[in-house]
Amino acid sequence: MAAAARPARSETTGIGLLGLGVVGSAVARAIVGRHGSGDPNVPLTVRAVVVQDPQRKRAVDLDRSIISTDADSVIANPEVGIVVELMGGEDPAFDYISRSLNGGKHVVTANKEVLCKRGGELLAIAAENDVQLLYEASVGGGIPIIGPLMNDLTANRIQSIRAIINGTTNFILTKMAHEGADFNDVLAEAQSLGYAETDPTADVDGFDSLYKISVLARLAFHTEVSIDAIHREGIRGVHAKDFRYASELGFTIKLLAVAQANEKSGLLTRVHPALIPLSVPMASVNGVLNAVEVEGDLVGRLWFQGPGAGPEPTASAVLGDILRIVRGGPGASTRADVPAPFDIASMDDHVCQYYLRLTVADRPGVLASIAKVLGDADISIGSVLQKDIDPENESADLVIMTHPAREANMQNAVSSLKRLDAVMRLDSLLRVETYPSRS
Ligand code: NDP
Ligand code: HSE
After folding, report:
1. What is the pTM of this model?
2. Residue whose CA is closest, atom 1 of ligand 1?
3. For a tag on the chain, would you pick the N or C end, based on fewer CB atoms within 10 A?
4. 319-358: burial string, b at 16+ Cβ within 10 Å, e else
5. Backbone dihedral region of 361: left (phi > 0), alpha (psi from -120 to 50 degrees) or beta?
6. Quick one: 196 exposed, middle or buried, by C-beta within 10 A (0-12, 13-18, 19+)?
C-alpha cells in the first residue's frame, strides 16, 4: 500500500494535467494566475500536461516544453502530487486514473462517464492506496453537490434527488420554450460557449445526465446503479408545439434526472424530459443553470442551483478539490451508519400522469376509440385538448393528460394506439413529474 504524500503548506504542489481543453485550460489559467509562484499561501505549479495534439494553440500561456502526448510525464512524474484528469471518456481515462492512484498520487477529475462506469473500482483503488479521488466538477459544474453528499449530509437517509444536471439541454430547452428557437441552431450555440460534450449526443440523448445521476445515486444511496438499470430518454422528441400546449396546461418541459428510494419497490433512477408545473422552483431554472433538489430524512428538502457547465464554473469545482487535498481537508467520508443497498426498481412500475400528443383524423368517434384503448389499459383521462385543426388533411392535434397511471400500462396503450386507423401519428409521450406537496 503506497502512502500518500500530503504536501506541507509551504511546499509547492506539483499538478499534472491530463487534458488541456475547455476545462483544462481554465484550470491551468486559474493556477497560473492565482496559485503560481505569486501566491505564497497555496503554491501550485503545473508540472506536466498531456494532450492529443501538442501543436494545437492553447487558451492558456504555459511553457510548451511541459505539454506532450506522453501520459507518463504526468502519471510517473515524481514532481506531480495531484493528477487532474480533464480528458473525458472511459478510455484511456480509467487506465490513467487507476495508475496514478496506484502510484500514490491524489486524483481530481470532472469525468462523470468514467465515474459512472468504473467509479466503484476507482474509489476502491484510491482507498487501498490511501489517496484521495475527488470529483466535485463531475456533476453540476460549479455547484457544490458532491461535497455536501459526501460530508455534510451523511447523517441523513436520502429519500430522493431530483435534478436538472445537463447545462446544454437546459440551454436548448429554455431557448425553445422562450424563443421558439430551432434545436440545431441552439445546440451549435451551446457548443461554441463550451457547454457541450465533445460528442454532443451525450448531452442531447441523456447519457450525460445518466452518468451524473448514477454518480449522485452511488453517493446518496450507497448503491451501484448500472447503466442498464437507468431509464434514459433524451430531448430529440420534444417539439415547439409541446412547449405551447404544456404552457396552456400550466407546465414547462425540462430534462430531469431523478433517483428516488422507496423501501418497498427499491431505488428507481430515470432520465427523461418531463412536464413540470410552472409553479415549482425548477421551472425557473433556465439556460445553462443546473439545479439539484435533495430530500433527506433529517434535513428535509435542500436546493442547490448554479452554473452547471462552462470553463470557469467547472474550474471553480476542480480547484476546490485540489485545494481541499492541499489543505488536508476532509475527503470521502467513512460512514458508520450506511444503510443496506437498495434493490433496483423497475421503470415499469413507475406511476405518474402522462401527456400525449397525437395527430388524429378529424372525424366522429375518434376520441371514443382512443378513450377505449386507454380505458382498457386501466388509464383514466384527465383532460383533452383538440388543437390545430387542418381541414386540408382532415386532421387535428389531440393533447391528452391522463390521471396517474403505471408505466407498463401506458406503454401497452401506446402500442395499441399506434395501431388505430384514426391515429395518424403519436407525436409525443411525456411524463408529468409528481411533486410532493411542500411541508
Ligand atoms: P475538451 O474536449 O475541451 O478537452 C479534452 C482535452 O483532453 C483536450 O485537451 C484533449 O487534447 C485531451 N484528450 C482527450 N483525449 C485524450 C487522450 N486520449 N490522450 C491525451 N489527451 C486527450 O473537453 P472539456 O474540457 O469540455 O471536458 C473535460 C472533462 O470535463 C470531461 O470529462 C467533461 O465531461 C468534463 N466537464 C466538462 C464541462 C464543460 O462545461 N465543458 C463541465 C463539467 C465537466 P487536445 O486538446 O489535444 O485534443
Ligand atoms: N456537457 C455538460 C453539460 C457539461 O452540458 O452539462 C457539464 O458536465
Report:
1. 0.94
2. 21
3. C
4. bbbbbbbbeeeebbeeeeeeeeebebbebeebebbbbbbb
5. beta
6. buried
CA 48 to chain centre: 30
Q: Which atom of ligand 1 is nearest to the CA of 309?
A: 40
Of 105, 112, 117, 212, which residue is the catalytic one? 212
Helix (H) or strand (E) holding 203, with range, is helix 201-204
CA nearest to 139, candidates 236, 235, 38, 257: 257
88 C-alpha vs ligand 1 centroid, how far in Å? Answer: 5
Task: Give the separation between CA 103 and CA 82, rounded to whole angstroms.
Answer: 11
Minimal-distance CA residue to ligand 1 atom 12:
19
Query: Percentage of the chain surpassing pLDDT 90?
Result: 82
Distance CA 154, CA 332 (A): 11
The pLDDT score that the predictor gives to residue 412 is 98
d(CA 295, CA 299): 7
CA atoms within 13 A on the CB side of 261: 23
Name the residue with higher pLDDT: 13 or 333: 13
Domains and CATH numbers, the chain: 13-134 (3.40.50.720), 155-306 (3.30.360.10), 347-432 (3.30.70.260)
Q: Which of 86, 197, 215, 312 for a ligand 2 pocket mutation test, highest count of atoms within 8 Å of Cβ? A: 197
Nearest Cα to 208, choosing from 83, 119, 100, 117?
A: 117
Terminal C-alpha separation, the chain: 49
C-alpha separations of 364 from 163, 379, 394, 396 in Å: 43, 22, 12, 12
